[in-house]
Amino acid sequence: MGTGVPTSWLNSALQAQLPAGMMLMDRSGTDPSRYVMVGGAALHISAAEWTAEGSAGQALTGVPGEWLAGAAASTVADGTLIKGQAGADPSIYVMIGGAGLPLTNVEFTTSYAGRCSACRRPGRPARSPGPSRTAPWSRRSPAPTRTCT
Predict the structure, then answer these.
(1) In the prediction, which pLDDT does 83 show?
(2) How many CB atoms lie within 10 A of CB 105?
(3) How far is CA 25 from CA 72, 76, 100, 129, in A?
(4) pTM
(5) Cα 80 vs. chain centroid, distance in angstroms?
(6) Which of 17, 29, 65, 114 is most buried, by the most CB atoms less than 10 A from its CB?
(7) Half-sphere exposure of 73 (CA within 13 A, CB side)
(8) Is pLDDT larger for residue 1 or for residue 123?
(9) Which residues of 61-89 are buried (b: 16+ CB within 10 A; e: fewer)?
(10) In a 3-state reduction of DSSP, which class is residue 101?
(11) What pLDDT is stored for residue 2 in this prediction?
């Protein structure tokens, strides 16, 4: 039924989390709900969001229903950076105690930009927008994920 793997590899795999932004569904097909992984939690995506925010064009991964139910009941990990999927709001927030707290451009640039690949183009340093510039992460088309990692 399963393939035997080395114990050390198995232990590492059991500790791993699905990557931020991965789109999920119950693989049994009995539940039409869709979810996105964010900071170790599976966040429900409404049908309207799925269509309007470009999620429908992304790869969808089927996962065991019981595991998905547990992930959907989880909270987003403290320190996870998030932003709106639609791209209309360029703001970045940090999750602390279940609350999304807004970051100023200076806070984002000095404390978080180096670990937030979804909010800047790869290989380019994050910049604080000047008074007449929009934030660099807002010039992009909507990110494929709802989260920064």
Answers:
(1) 86
(2) 17
(3) 11, 18, 25, 37
(4) 0.67
(5) 9
(6) 65
(7) 6
(8) 1
(9) eebeeeebeebeeeebeeebbbbebebee
(10) strand
(11) 83
